[in-house]
Amino acid sequence: MEVRKLKTVIAGCGKIFPMHAVPVSRDPHAVLTAVCDVKPERAGAAAERFGCRAYTDFEVMLEQEKPDVVHICTPHYLHAPLACLAMEHGCHVLTEKPMAIALADARRMLDTAAATGRTLGVIFQNRYNAGSQLIRRCLDNGDLGEVRAARVLLTWDRSPEYYSQSDWKGTWDKEGGGVIIDQAIHTLDLMRWFIGRPVTGVQASLANRTHPDIPVEDTAEGRVEFEGGAYGTFYVMNHYCTDEPVRLELACTRGKAVMEGPKARVELNNGLTCLADNDPAQMFEYGDVKQYWGTSHVKQIGNFYQSLLGLAPMYVTAENAFLTQEMICALYEHGRRHFVREVR
């Protein structure tokens, strides 16, 4: 039986682009027909690499290509308008995190998906990591019991050049913030996903300690409270000397779980210990990309196409991703009232 292939285009040919283009080019249910970028040379190079057409105007690409699926790999502030425009053109959309930089825009994305009948997906690929999956199973089957508390630690390094070489990184109006929305959002998403209950309150303090040329935070700490009394605490910063593995700990009623990067260790009160790490046999080669992005984009992208064709349920729904967006926006709303600028 012939496998149906969905016509796919990608908006944005920057650093995250290969994490989408390579899986799409190898997916049995997709065919990459075009790419788009405001920088003609970047769009041209990407199109040549993947044997497709190049555009610099997103709406023109939609009108001429008439794709089934649009991947959005642009700066954060463009996620919502491009996603809504694509869905209004009849396309399904898979966007990189975050959904948006304002909660109202994220809501508009959900409303547009409902009004058009199109499917919206949001990349949170770390939910597919082996460690994440082990912890999820131990929570779902009751082995760990309920989460009582969680803590997140992220200490990474972002040089001044990381920001100065970008026309949108490190800005409120284009990136939506700093270390929380760019680096820590994945681990904060895992924390919320594991606890699995509505957020009832947040506290956050933001600071810029070592990046005088940007207005956003490079350091943040805070607390997220959940229905039923569970809570999560976090300390995240991007002015360490290197990128250390992210650490996420869960204290549960029947044991504890610790994640470091993709690895996890679950210790149950009955003495049983379970370990998980990504299988080298499942490693996926994306090319010259940052290693901390992991290898799970291919799993989420594959699931997205399977769900569109009715072959599997959607694992990361837009509605569930919106709950993380809601939490992130609440942290910024509180944290910007407690912003400390140490650098002069």
UniProtKB/TrEMBL annotation:
- InterPro entries, from UniProt? Gfo/Idh/MocA-like_OxRdtase_N (IPR000683), Gfo/Idh/MocA_Oxidoreductase (IPR052515), GFO_IDH_MocA-like_dom (IPR055170), NAD(P)-bd_dom_sf (IPR036291)
Instruction: Indicate the segments forming the GFO/IDH/MocA-like oxidoreductase domain, all copies.
Output: 133-257
Quote one Gene Ontology molecular function term.
nucleotide binding
Q: What Pfam family does this protein match (any one)?
A: GFO_IDH_MocA_C3
- The Gfo/Idh/MocA-like oxidoreductase N-terminal domain, residue ranges: 7-123
Protein name in the entry: Oxidoreductase
The organism's lineage is: Bacteria, Bacillati, Bacillota, Clostridia, Eubacteriales
